[in-house]
Specification:
With about 450 residues, the chain is an alpha+beta fold. The protein is about 40% helix and about 20% strand. It has 2 domains: about 240 residues, 2-Layer Sandwich (BirA Bifunctional Protein, domain 2), CATH 3.30.930; about 110 residues, Rossmann fold (3-Layer(aba) Sandwich), CATH 3.40.50.800. The chain binds adenosine-5'-triphosphate and magnesium ion.
Length: about 450
């Protein structure tokens, strides 16, 4: 037998019925984004490596060890599979002059790539949905974005998600803090791990982002950036908090929250949960007022967030909130091939009225010697008995079967058979008036759900 090819480690296929849950979440997020007037943007998955090196910062986990970078064999370009989408969105905004007519509210969704150790909630291809507000300086935008994410958890019915908040201030404030931080860590050099010793010289703030448990107490006692903020930065931060308070959004100030990329300033935040083991951060974001300029655009402020789709879906499953399903409204039973054209015409009419309709068809499951030795006609002509088809209809949990039997077709009708309790009785429906009973059927289904 030919050897099987499997997916790359840490990169997952998303299969039904899971994929239905994905679509449901995507639809919820799309509605949310539209309700806040955010517009969709789609950027390439591959970008020049320089975009991330310059955008995210050379001394970050992502750029140092997580990027899928390669040289284009044909022209020698240095390329990278995007590890996140903010840099690409900003590149696109600059390239297409998107801020020419004023600020923009944008959102995106799609796969990201990081070469990490695969484990629960951490994959090499994972998915983010994110929002970016480009060209806005006011703290009300930071707050708007946090309210959006908070609203999403509420609308999904999720519980046990906490908001952590910090302000990283402005570059001069960070500079002062940096000096204090370097002095502190130098005084405790012996307690630093290898990564942190190196970062002490290149990017000491990153030491605060360490995942090494042995360094936590050292990091906890380090000088706090928040104590170095001036009046403007504090006023910005306080306004964000005032909006959250007015909206009843609980948060916890976390002075050690720094986030994984260098581009942040002022507000940073994360939504975390203790229900997903060590991969407990489901959403992260903040303000990045200098990134647009750093990537070659006219200086403009910005703020955004992204959440991890896999982690949110895992939480939805953990809390038994996965209520979406792919069950059809109607399962069509067609025992004879001769009636197929008429049946399919009717099903198309029902679908155009908004009903979910599944047509019966026997599957030729993985071909063994037996199946291939049969004449192909014989295989596809046999649709299965009425009884066998009704069994399938029942198994797929559809509330109704629609039976196109010999007798029915002769009479110019179709039998609508209720398969569950509470969805009416068996009746015959005229084939020349599908529109009117189809609409009534849909109303009935909607009423049954409520
Ligand atoms: P972590 O601290 O867990 O590595 P991060 O700070 O690197 O997260 P961000 O870059 O802020 O994550 O990305 C935003 C969100 O994307 C995270 O909060 C998380 O939900 C999700 N995410 C990040 N990396 C992965 C991954 N490798 N697999 C699955 N989801 C991820
Ligand atoms: Mg990470």
């Amino acid at each position: 037998m030919t050897e099987k090819i499997t997916a790359v480690k840490g990169m997952n296929d998303i299969l039904p019925p899971d994929s239905h849950l994905w679509e449901w979440l995507e639809a919820c997020v799309r509605d949310l984004m539209h309700s806040y007037a955010y517009q969709n943007i789609r950027t390439p998955i591959v970008e020049p490596s320089a975009l991330f090196i310059r955008g995210l910062g050379e001394v970050t986990d992502i750029v140092e060890k997580e990027m899928y970078s390669f040289e284009d064999r044909l022209n020698g370009e240095q390329l990278t599979l995007r590890p996140e989408a903010t840099a690409g969105v900003v590149r696109a905004a600059i390239q297409h002059n998107l801020l020419y007519e004023g600020p923009r509210r944008l959102y995106y969704t799609g796969p990201m790539f990081r070469h990490e150790r695969p484990q629960r909630g951490r994959y090499r291809q994972f998915h983010q949905m994110g929002a970016e507000a480009l060209g806005f300086a006011g703290p009300q935008l930071d707050a708007e974005l946090i309210l959006m994410a908070h609203g999403l958890w509420l609308s999904l019915g999720l519980e046990g998600i906490e908001l952590e908040l910090n302000s990283l201030g402005q570059p001069p404030e960070r500079q002062q803090h940096r000096q204090a931080l370097v002095a502190y860590f130098e005084a405790h050099r012996e307690a630093l791990d290898e990564d942190s010793q190196r970062r002490l010289l290149t990017n000491p703030l990153r030491i605060l982002d360490t995942k090494n448990p042995q360094m936590q107490s050292l990091v906890n006692a380090a000088p706090r950036l928040i104590d170095f903020l001036g009046a403007d930065s504090m006023a910005h931060f306080e306004t964000v908090q005032a909006v959250l308070q007015a909206n009843g959004v609980a948060y916890r100030l976390n002075p050690r929250l720094v986030r994984g990329m260098d581009y942040y300033n002022l507000t940073v935040f994360e939504f975390v949960t203790d229900q997903l083991g060590s991969q407990g951060t489901i959403c992260g974001g903040g303000r990045y007022d200098y990134l647009i300029e750093q990537l070659g655009g006219k200086p403009a402020p910005a703020v955004g967030w992204a959440f991890g789709v896999e982690r949110v879906l895992e939480l939805i499953k953990a809390q038994n909130l996965a209520k979406a399903s792919a069950v059809p409204d109607v399962y069509a039973v067609v025992p004879q091939m001769a009636h197929m054209p008429l049946a399919m015409k009717t099903l198309t009419q029902l679908r155009s009225l908004g009903l979910k309709v599944q047509m019966h068809s026997p599957g030729q499951t993985p071909m063994g010697g037996d199946a291939s030795s049969q004449a192909p006609q014989a295989a596809w002509m046999a649709l299965g008995s009425m009884k066998a088809q009704l069994k399938k209809a029942d198994a797929c949990l559809a509330p109704f079967a629609l039976i196109f039997g010999e007798q029915e077709v002769l009479e110019g009708v179709v039998t609508l058979k209720a398969l569950r309790d509470g969805v009416g009785s068996q009746r015959k429906m005229p084939l020349d008036d599908v529109a009117s009973w189809g609409k009534a059927l849909q109303c009935e289904l909607l009423a049954a759900v409520v």
